[in-house]
Amino acid sequence: MSRAAALVLFWSSICLVGQQADTPGFSFGSGASRVPMVADELDVAKVRPYDQVLMTKFNKVWFAFRERYALTEDGLFIPSQSGADPSPDTPESQVAFLHHLSREPVKVTYRHSVKCEDCRGTGRKFVYEGLSATELTHVVCGGTGLVDALIVCKLSYSGTPPPRLPSANQRAYAAALKLAEGDNALAALEVADRLASGKGVTRHLASASEWYLKALMRGEPKAAGRLATMYERGEVGFELNKPFALALAMLGREMGGGDASLDQLARNSSSLEILKGHWYGQTLLGARRAGRLNESLLKPKALDAAIMRRFDEILVAARRDDKLATFDVGMIQLCGLGAGGVDAPAAFGWFTKAAKAGNPLAYFALGSHFEAGVAVRKSRPAAFALYRVSLSLGQEFPAAQAAKGLEPYCSDPAIGARLDELLAKVRDGSIVASDISGLVGLPDVDVPVGVASTPTPVADPGPARGPAGKPLGPIVQSGSGMIFTSDGHFFTNHHVVENCTYVTVRANGSSIERRAILVAADPARDLAILRIVEWRSGEIPYPTPSLLRSAAEESQLGMRVFTIGFPMPDLLNSTPKYAGGDLNSTQGGSGEKSHFMQVSCPIQPGNSGGPLVLEDGRVAGVICATLAMRSQNANFAIRIEYLRQLAEKYGVFIPSASARVVDPVRSIQSHCVQVLCRK
User: Fold this and answer.
1) Are strands 513-522 and 527-532 parallel, antiparallel or unpaired?
2) How far is Cα 248 from Cα 293, in angstroms, rounded to an integer?
């Protein structure tokens, strides 16, 4: 007998042979005031097909279990979302059900008719007048002798469950592996993804990286982005190496993978890391264009060795003032590839020489030294000026983003005048080393121009009060939110402010409560926009955080994310709390819940309405703690595009993207508010 036939025979020994109704609905007797609750137990191992009483009970609890639990692609049952469709009734789900019960008992609830105790199951009541009695229909049970009851049944399985069938993930991995062993790039990528995440196979990062390399060499650009993420995070077995991660992202973009991965890495990297990554990336791109790219070059140490094999050739060209070779020598010194290790002052000298020869990337290299304070005194205006020179010479990446990040700090007219002088000398070829070193004297500021250096003082109004100066009622619940406009608009969850008489907030780390008014609400998606009364632009010493246009399109699985909120204030006090994790899914629900994204950040009551933020400081969603409380280890956020739709509908203007965020956590924290619901 085949294994499949044996499984069907096994399940038929405990399952109802007939057709089950879709819903176990029952009508109430007329006049019924409440539904009685009855406790029950069922050991599924003792159910037999010929026992119709147990089979009827089993049929109902099996359906009730599938309504409450969802079968994952790994073949495990987890609590399902409210309103979700029942889990499928398949051989795989049946065996998984038995394994689930064998580990721990489960309680399920269903409706069933039981004997009416009031009429003792007769459906009749007697009215006595003297010695005579009149028989009447019992109103409570409608004359049936039965009433609806809520059965709370404890399910268990005392037997030995059969071997598990391959889960959906295991079947998908086996199918992908078979294709990948041929020459299928997409299948190789899927195999690598499953090895990296442990879906359908034991998690093994070393094997995953090998398959990513195979997929990359077969022309799949997404594999470059996946490898870049491993090096960016320093995953187990991988050294933390942001420059090499940037190089791989550049390679992926060249192969048609788009800019998303590279842009995110660049936003979260220092200018020196970007400089090194760009240089390594150009080396990989050159090898690819020359047909010399192979798997060995796609590892950091092997790439370093390949560069150093050409060092003598590069040095000879550099001594002839070749602008590319002089830059390469500077990078070798900066990265410490030579026998003498890192020599930043020597690298700065080589970059100066390359800049005088007209190499646009050399100006970016010099700017990154000034921004980081390496080999020279730290100076943001000097870095900004050199980035602008690099950009004017055609070095769009990475100079444009670097210049934009420093622009708010560099609006002094003296900087603009010096930049004009520098550009004129670059164009006529008269620039000298002193022109570059002299930039260090340009004026600098501590905070972006146009933003107050300290929060605008707000007078303490005393206890929060409502109209006519009456004290507000008690706090009945609290949540989190984030200010996203200069007019004091902030977002939160609708359930946080629903049914509140007044809403107050504590903003910018202050204990002072300030009134807020509701501007827009979307109960279906649990979103609300409010405005802080008498908010003044400039109260927060950081630029307004940027909101993604679309989290579904601009975020990727595995991205690092964080949230800042005010969870459990009674237990943890009312200071903001940070929680980090990964983006598990950009579409965490189904049907009406498809606007959610799933994350691994720990979420607790009080986090509701807080921002979900990418590592680079851009806001991707709004935390929804109510779903987190319904599902174990499954935390959710509402995608930011739905907040944008709500803001547009009610005329709330969302500012365009701000400059590169230097300190994302501190910037987000300064815009977070604790939302208090008062009666």
Assistant:
1) antiparallel
2) 12
Q: If you write DSSP's letter for every residue of 11-34 in order, what string do you get?
A: HHTTS-SSPPPSS---PPPTT---
Give one word for 449, left, alpha or beta, with left for phi > 0 and alpha for psi -120 to 50. Answer: beta
Give the global pTM. 0.60
Q: Would you list the domain boundaries of the chain? A: 3-156, 168-220, 473-679
CA distances from 62 to 14, 41, 120, 122, 205 (A): 11, 13, 30, 31, 39
CB neighbours of residue 414 within 10 Å: 12
Q: DSSP for 91-138, please give it.
A: HHHHHHHHHHHHHS-EEEEEEEEEE-TTTTTSSEEEEEETTEEEEEE-
- Looking at residue 657, its pLDDT comes to 56
H helices within 530-604, ranges in order? Answer: 551-554, 569-572
DSSP string, 173-222: HHHHHHHHTTT-HHHHHHHHHHHHHTSSS---HHHHHHHHHHHHHTT-TH
Looking from the CA of 56 toward its CB, the CA atoms found within 13 Å total 6
Going by C-alpha positions, the residue among 363, 448, 430, 422 that lies closest to residue 661 is 448
Residue 368: CB atoms within 10 A of its CB come to 25
Query: Which pLDDT value is given to residue 678?
Result: 86
Which ranges of 500-635 does DSSP label H, i.e. alpha helix?
Answer: 551-554, 569-572, 625-630
CA–CA gap between residue 307 and residue 286 (Å, rounded)? 12
- Taking the alpha carbons of 578, 579, 582, 587 in that order, is the dihedral positive or negative? negative
Within 13 Å, how many C-alpha atoms sit on residue 563's CB side? 33
The answer to whether residues 133 and 126 touch, using CB atoms and an 8 Å cutoff, is yes
pLDDT at 578: 87
- Give the whole-angstrom CA distance, residue 477 versus residue 482: 17
- Amino acid present at 553: E
**Tokens encoding 403:** 């210049």
Kindly state the tokens that stand for 232: 């960016």
Name the architecture of domain 473-679. Answer: Beta Barrel (2.40)
Distance between CA atoms of residues 343 and 603, nearest Å:
46
Question: Looking at residue 491, what DSSP letter applies?
Answer: E
For 201-211, the pLDDT digits (tens) are: 998 989 999 99
Low-confidence ranges of the chain (pLDDT < 70): 1-34, 82, 236, 445-472, 508-509, 570-572, 588-594, 625-634, 656-662
Residue 94 structure tokens:
């049946």
